[in-house]
Amino acid sequence: MKHLYLIFVASSFTLIAWAQSPNTDKSLFRQLGSELPTPNTYRTASGAPGESYWQQRADYDIKVEVDDDKQRLIGKETITYTNNSPHVLTYVWVQLDQNVVDPESDTYKTKTNTMSERTSLMQLNSMIDNSFDGGFKLEYVRDVMGKDLKYTVNKTMMRVDLPMPLAAKGGKVVLNISWAYNINDRQNPALSADSRGGYEYFPEDGNYLYTLAQWYPRMAVYDDYNGWQHKQFLGQGEFTLPFGNFTVAITVPADHIVASTGVLQNGKEVLSAEQLKRFEMSKTADKPLVIVTQAEATEKEKTKATTKKTWIYKAENVRDFAFGTSRKYIWDAMGVKVEGSTQPVIMAMSYYPKEANPLYGQYSTEAVAHTLRVYSKHTIPYPYPVAISVEASNGMEYPMICFNYGRPEKDGTYSDRIKYGMLSVIFHEVGHNFFPMIVNSDERQWTWMDEGLNSFCQFLAEQEWQRDYPSGSGPAKSIVDYMKMDKSVQNPIMTNSESIIRFGDNAYGKPATALNILRETVMGRDLFDFSFREYAKRWAFKHPTPSDLFRTMEDASGVDLDWFWRGWFFTTDHVDISLENVTPFRMDTKNPEIEKPIAGKAAKEELENDITYQNNKRDLPTTAVERNKALEDFYNNYDPNAIVPSDKKAYDQYMSGLGEKEKAFMAKGLHFYQLDFANKGGLVMPLIIQFNFEDGTSEVKRIPAEIFRLNDQKVSKVFALAKPVVSVELDPQEETADTDRENNFFPRKAVPSRFELFKQSGGGRWSGGSGMNPMQKAKAETKN
Ligand SMILES: [Zn+2]
After folding, report:
1. 260 touches 248 (CB < 8 A)
2. pTM for this predicted structure
3. Where are the extended beta strands (E) located within 577-655?
4. How many A from CA of 223 to the centre of ligand 1?
5. Is 729 helix (H, G, I), strand (E, B) or coil?
6. CA–CA distance, 635 with 516 (Å, rounded to integer)
7. What is the DSSP letter of 169?
8. Which residues contact residue 764 at a Cβ distance below 8 angstroms, ignoring those fewer than 6 apart?
9. Distance 688 CA to ligand 1 centre (A)
10. Predicted confidence band at 759 (pLDDT cuts at 50, 70, 90)?
11. How many whole angstroms from 451 Cα to the centroid of ligand 1?
12. Residue 697: its pLDDT value, please?
């Protein structure tokens, strides 16, 4: 094979540096080693559950009553706990999450705050008020025979000592627990965020709306990688729970409607004949049908029943159980078919007070159905028979049921912020059925494993709802402001739930964006979607850890993502890749017909550009040679760039020495550009390069991040292009969350930042207005 030697002409010549990093084990492309647990027979190196994988089980039979006069909950439960582990257990741990609002709670004690010159009573109360008499009041903990068991309450956790060791691999123990607690006001900022559930009081009609969550003593998780997960609940790190079946009898005032996890068992006893008929009809309806109308609910608000009813719900294979109850509830439902689901029809349902209409009635159940369809497509088909959205003052998720805010103004109008806020929170909270209710990750340890994955799927649902949906997180550029913040207010995604700073950005926005970047930019949709679904399939109804996700995504796609997980999940580095320089190169054709005119033109331009030459032309009317022709000789009229016969001869000789391939290559007339890149932010990313050509067209080249594998600080690459280039732009569609766009252009281009001009006095905005939302304004204008 004949070698091709090409000679390049350039103003400067630089040697490309080969592998410069002297310390290869610091390479951003080294494989994840000590960061991940060693694979074993429980969890394999492929990211799938291993042949010895086991998990515990807890089945519950509960009788609970809500006292609507005293806002108190009273319950008795029988827990049947199955020890599938290979270990004998002498005690078990139970979660007492209500103790987060006990007056002696560590949550109050460890909350940090500062005084400011202007402090409202509400703000002050949220700092110092621990007067609410919250927390579980335990009556007893007994064994299957009704004999008292020794138990020790350690804040939000309780150890129950077993009189007999619990056998490994299938041993069962029964706990009977009786308890009560005062239900907190979920509007109270000192309590609501930590307890999640509570009541809302409506002073206009004197009624209560209850959302009850973490309302019963729940088994903690014992597993192969943590042992007991009994890290205290401080309010931020949510819940870690085993799967089981539930039978729950809920006693409430007879005029209440109960919305609950599970399937209602005694509809004939608690619903009217008319309600039952409407419910049956809704199963085959193609739009939500109202089972309790607004008129019926409003009528009930006027009186209070003195009798009680008991609603019995059963739920299979769930990690938790929550319910809402009120006489204020409007209730609508629609049967949804999801391809591949084991359920022939899934009931999408909503429960809400009249205060949430007209918004909730129009959108909630449709949004529930939409979430089931989109998430089922991207993970596993929704396996439960029911999915419910209940209107309440803040969003929170449980199996089959979630509580989502969505309340218009009193006049029935609402801002776009309220509308899209409501839709997004419904997509999000219903979406939590998949992460962590089914793909049951450890929320107490890793918030991002459910919130991040769920926020990513929420983005998919939003974008499938409407094309111009104003999504908050998902697009790469939405995370730029966070990623360029001072590193003191960031910690890696791989941080324990209770220690995360800037919770929303860290555990929701950043992982959601990272997954979207993997899907759109690093892996492509086909490889990503297959692998993400594989993760959901492998870990549905099991307990995955981060390494199971990281490994599965690589195992199923054949893409080495260690560099990506390391950079995005284990560090606080950001993306800032700079296009440092673009150097054009032109091939020396050796053809005197081409090269000599070019050289002649360049020599002439160089001379004419010289400052002395220019000034003398202006200041000296003539030179010595111009005055005296006798001073001229051959060289005064010799053009070194004129083509002479010997040039042609040399060219013919050169060409005859080249083979056909070389000649063909030369005939292409390619333009060569060396691009130099510098990694300034720390995260390596693919290089997406847009060349803009002289003729106004452009072309995008996509280079995988592995271009940085030999040198993760600086790389250069040569491109051969058919047309001359006028400018180059890095990441033209803002796919990589690059925090500094100015160094993405060559030649450099200033990227304008926006600022808003304020009036010098008064402080009001120029474009303020009446404080009305657009719907109110439109109504006001049509009246005039
Ligand atoms: Zn969430």
Report:
1. yes
2. 0.89
3. 577-587
4. 24
5. strand
6. 69
7. T
8. 758
9. 33
10. low
11. 5
12. 98
Residue 760 pLDDT class (50, 70, 90 cuts)? low
pLDDT digits (tens, 9 = 90+) for 337-356: 999 999 999 999 999 999 99
* 396 C-alpha to ligand 1 centroid (Å): 7
Alpha carbon of 507 to ligand 1 centroid (Å): 10
Q: How far is ligand 1, taken at its centre, from the CA of residue 199, in Å?
A: 20
Given phi > 0 = left and psi -120 to 50 = alpha, else beta, which region is 64?
beta
pLDDT of 12 > 50? The answer is no
Q: How far is the CA of 371 from the centre of ligand 1 (A)?
A: 14
Question: 429 CA to middle of ligand 1, Å?
Answer: 6
Give the model's confidence band at 2: pLDDT under 50 very low, under 70 low, under 90 confident, else very high. Answer: very low
The tokens for 479 are: 């995370």
**Strand 57-67 to strand 244-253: parallel, antiparallel, or no bridges (unpaired)?**
parallel
* Ligand 1 center to 432 CA (angstroms): 6
- From the CA of 17, how far away is ligand 1's center (Å)? 47
Q: How far apart, in whole angstroms, are the C-alpha atoms of residue 265 and residue 311? A: 8
CA distance linking residue 291 with residue 86, whole number of Å: 49
| Cα 187 to ligand 1 centroid, rounded to whole Å | 19
Distance CA 209, CA 204 (A): 13
Class of residue 562 by CB neighbours under 10 A (exposed 0-12, middle 13-18, buried 19+)? middle
Query: What is the pLDDT, as a whole number, of residue 393?
Result: 78
The rounded Å distance from CA 468 to ligand 1 centre is: 23
How far is ligand 1, taken at its centre, from the CA of residue 238, in Å? 10
Q: Which residues contact 545 (CB under 8 A, 6 or more apart)?
A: 37, 43, 225, 441, 442, 446
Centre of ligand 1 from the C-alpha of residue 57, in Å: 24
d(Cα 60, Cα 316) in Å, to the nearest integer?
A: 10
Centre of ligand 1 from the C-alpha of residue 454, in Å: 7
Question: Given strand 72-83, what is the order of strands in its sheet?
Answer: 137-142, 171-182, 72-83, 57-67, 244-253, 308-318, 263-264
pLDDT tens-digit series, residues 285-312:
999 999 999 999 999 999 999 999 999 9
Q: What's the confidence (pLDDT) of residue 264?
A: 98
d(CA 27, ligand 1 centre) in Å = 35
Q: How far is the CA of 117 from the centre of ligand 1 (A)?
A: 34
Q: How far apart are CA 688 and CA 351, in angstroms?
A: 48
- 585 strand-pairing partners: 672
Spatial contact of 503 and 488, defined as CB atoms under 8 Å apart: no
CA 742 to chain centre: 27
